[in-house]
Amino acid sequence: MSSTIPRGFFLVFVLAVFAAINSPALAWDPMGHMIVNQIAWDRLTPKARADVKKSLAAFNKKNATDYDFVTAGCWMDDIRGKTREYNTWHYIDLPYNPTGTPFPVDWQVNGLWAMRHCVAILRGERTDPDIDKDQALVMLTHLVGDLHQPLHATNRNGDAGGNGVSVPNIQDANVEIFPKWRNLHYFWDTSYRRTVRDGDVVELYAEPVHLVDQPVARHQKSLPLVREQAAAFQKSPSSKEIVAGGDLKSWVEESHALGYTEGYQKLPGDAESTVVTLDDIYVDNAREISQKRVTQAGLRLAGLLNEISQ
Fold first, then answer.
1. Helix (H, G, I), strand (E, B) or coil at 110
2. H or E stretch covering 185
3. If you placed Cys at 111, which of 92, 169, 286, 294 could pair as Cys (CB 3.0 to 4.6 Å)?
4. Could you please report the per-residue DSSP string of 128-184?
5. Beta partners for 128?
6. CB 196 within 8 A of CB 278
7. Contact criterion met (CB below 8 Å) for 222 and 208
8. How many other CB atoms sit within 10 Å of the CB of residue 224?
9. 4: exposed, middle or buried (C-beta count within 10 Å: 0-12, 13-18, 19+)?
10. What is the C-alpha to C-alpha distance for residues 151 and 254, in angstroms, rounded to an integer?
């Protein structure tokens, strides 16, 4: 941390990181979720944009917040320091195998169930006394992003999607404060902006420094970079390979397949090891896959909301 950062700021930052570490794994980091939502916003129809603006205005009034569509993708992570009620909604533990993946029964609460639940509320097919349509919209924007992260749909020997696999050569401000974040899951959360320099897995660009007790304000500081990256992802040659259709279950199946083949099977050295040093081949491949998945999540979220608003 720079010596110019106020001492009080540093304390708030540390406390927030500590709270996050003692929560189940997140998916894409805040910037990743905002890139998903920015890509979706760019593809919404005029009617869908009007509908989500109206819904977000109602959501903000009820919750005394100030989210727009792009920053709303972070809300489900922002509240994790206040409630653990929705922790199991962010992922689905599918067994570590290449094919024939058995899915949990429909009533089990997990990421796939949560997406279906929010879509049903938005379509007027289901009611929830605790979640109205405005909140269901905000939650869905986050969940679609979560379930496109490969290690949010893959669990190897109870390692919580790679949280149990240590990656000692990850370097950034977060892991300097809490080395526990040097793990495979945290790498994949940020892999869309990772590279290798001098043997270390580092960030291509970092999120702006901000006060963590003011979530919307801190997200807003990232918006110029979010818009820049969302545009770059959509213009990337690899974006032409992206399949934007499919249903909710197929999205999860894709993530699970990638988590198995790319997340675990291509790890350098012993694929079963719980301590792995990532090399440039693995990191470059993960970055390309994650950029595609972030873009794909945005395109699919737009398609889903456009269909619901018809």
1. coil
2. helix 184-189
3. 92
4. BTTB-HHHHHHHHHHHHHHTTSGGGS-BSTT-TTTTTSB-TTB-SHHHHH-GGG-BH
5. 131
6. yes
7. yes
8. 10
9. exposed
10. 11
| Rounded Cα gap, residues 215 and 94, in angstroms | 31
Q: Where are the domains of the chain?
A: 7-309
Per-residue pLDDT tens, the chain, 310 aa: give them: 333 334 333 333 443 444 443 444 567 999 999 999 999 999 999 999 999 999 999 999 999 999 999 999 999 999 988 899 999 999 998 888 877 677 777 779 999 999 999 999 999 999 999 999 999 999 999 999 999 999 999 989 899 999 999 999 999 998 998 899 999 999 999 999 999 999 999 999 998 776 667 889 999 999 999 999 999 999 987 777 787 788 999 999 999 999 999 999 999 998 788 999 999 999 999 999 999 999 999 999 999 999 999 9
Q: Is the CATH number of domain 7-309 3.10.20.310?
A: no
Strands (E), the chain: 194-197, 200-203
Structure tokens at 73: 């993708």
- Angle of the 111-122 helix axis to the 280-309 helix axis, nearest 10: 20
Q: How many CB atoms lie within 10 A of CB 30?
A: 20
C-alpha to C-alpha distance for 161 and 93, rounded to whole angstroms:
8
Cα(246)–Cα(147) distance, rounded to whole angstroms? 13
| Chain centroid offset of residue 103 CA | 21
d(CA 247, CA 90): 18
Rounded Cα distance, 164 and 156, in Å? 9
Cα-based distances in Å from 208 to 30, 217, 230: 11, 11, 17
Q: Assess contact for 69 and 5: CB atoms under 8 A.
A: no
